[in-house]
Amino acid sequence: MELTIVGCSGSFAGPDSPASCYLLRAEAEGRTWSIVLDLGNGALGNLQRHIDPLTVDAVLISHLHVDHFIDLCGLYVMLKYVPGGSGREDLPTYGPEGLGEHLSHAYGNEAIEDVPGIFEFRTIRDREPIVLGPFTITPVGVKHTIESYGFRVEVDGRTLVYTGDTDLCDALTPLMTGADLVLADAAFVDGRDETPGIHLSGSRAAEAAVRAGGVQRLMLTHIPSWNDPDVCYAQAAAVWPGEVEVAKPGATYVV
Fold first, then answer.
1. CB-side exposure of 87: number of CA atoms within 13 Å?
2. Partner residues linked to 172 by β-bridges
3. Is 30 exposed, middle or buried (0-12, 13-18, 19+ CB in 10 A)?
4. Residue 221 and residue 255: Cα distance in Å, rounded?
5. What is the predicted pLDDT for the residue at 253?
6. Domains of the chain (ranges, CATH numbers)
7. Which residue spans within 44-134 are E strands per DSSP?
8. Strand-pair partners of 149
9. How far is it, in rounded angstroms, from Cα 140 to Cα 25?
10. What angle do CA 181, 199, 106 make, to 5 degrees?
11. Calpha distance 119→215 (Å, rounded)
12. Is the whole model's pTM more than 0.85, yes or no?
């Protein structure tokens, strides 16, 4: 599968990157399938550089903080009002329970009735796999300030893991074990950010990957613009036995 980093800035859009958004593509059944993991603020604009959003097969939202879902509001407008119609059925959109209601509030019209007529909302459950074309996506509940999930995505024997927002927790082991690539939250900096239960640091992301075993590549993401990526890299490199990678907005990687 191919991974494109649409946005990887943590907590808010930065000067060089939108907030969280990751595009995955894979071939099956004679066509290219595409799914989007998270659609944070600013991401819909950059997503259009890589794919027509109207052709995406599904969107999966890890949790209901705005830097991970708020551009669904713009996607709603695009799907509903594009001249000539979108030409597609309702977009399968997976997320924690209440995503549709949450989106309606965010859009600014609590009485809006057709948000569920544009998106087909489907609630994700811990460890219940989702099959979309060539993709098998297993949500795993992780440790954050609200209900949050990491995603384990498997295609033809290859595995990509996206932790979403999380601190160290036991669930990271089954989420990460044997992954070809782990996209790991690294929003915190050791020695500065000590509040537990919110985010990983570079060192804690590396610790979780080492503990899980069999991880081939570790890539840090969700780094806020007030962080120095070199510091996050160094803290991970002190623990991770291989080469640490840092997600680059606009870059595409083969998994």
1. 7
2. none
3. exposed
4. 16
5. 98
6. 2-254 (3.60.15.10)
7. 58-60, 91-95, 119-123, 130-132
8. 141
9. 21
10. 100
11. 35
12. yes
